[in-house]
Amino acid sequence: MHPAERPTAARLRPVRPRHAHRFGVPVRRLGFLLLVPACLCLLPRAADAVEGFSQPFLEVQVAAPESGIVETILVKQGQAVRRGQVLATLDQSVLRTSLEFARAKARATAARDAARAELELRQRRLEKLLSLREEGHSSRDEVERTQTDVQIAQARLRAAEEECELNQLEVRRIEAQLARLAVVSPTDGVVVRLHREAGEFVAAGAPQVATVVRLDALRVKLYLPTDLAGRLSTAQSVPLVFPETGQRAPGRVEFISPTTDADSGTVRVELIIDNPDGRYRSGVPVRIE
Hints:
By secondary structure, the protein is α+β, with helices and mostly antiparallel strands. The protein has 7 helices and 14 strands.
């Protein structure tokens, strides 16, 4: 074979297709880069991915102020209650007996009446002696002794009156103790759980008797990216949606955390949804629309 016709390395290299490189980037890699923006368009925005859950505006674990045995449960689960309404009572038998005794003592006024009568008697005697003294028919010593008797009678009357006041205070003290044995709702709301039944013992370590929640307003906690949270302000209205039911409601920004969580890079934001008629349910997903 002629040396000119012998194949060389240059002649044996495969021929690359035309336009194999555009701006120094291989065609296959360039095609991949062109697909990336299209994929990014399909990703949800940060605000669309933010989701929280509706919560009661207020949830109270109503506790018994004293340890004891539950005597009566006066409400049921799901029942609406008012502030100050008695939910349950503890055993009051001992205190009720003490209260009857204290009221009987408070009604006893015999000692006070006797002291008052004695004082009036001593005062009339002193007045007579003073008038006789002016006429010279009574001695000075007799007048002084009668004056002392009047002072003693006054002291006895004051002691009797103070005893009556103490008896009245004892009645009030026992009534206050009885009031502490009543479990009272601190707010308007709904009883969602009863932790005790009649006859069960309530200990100091576990004093919960019932759970009462306020549902006339709902609270929503969201964790937003810092840039999105920075666009919000307190009392601002934000449109919210309930994905499960399709309901929409305005949420009022109540709190924006002044700090960003270092681990997640998000800011805690709390919103309030007015719910006077109970349209919206607590415990379901809520997101920014």
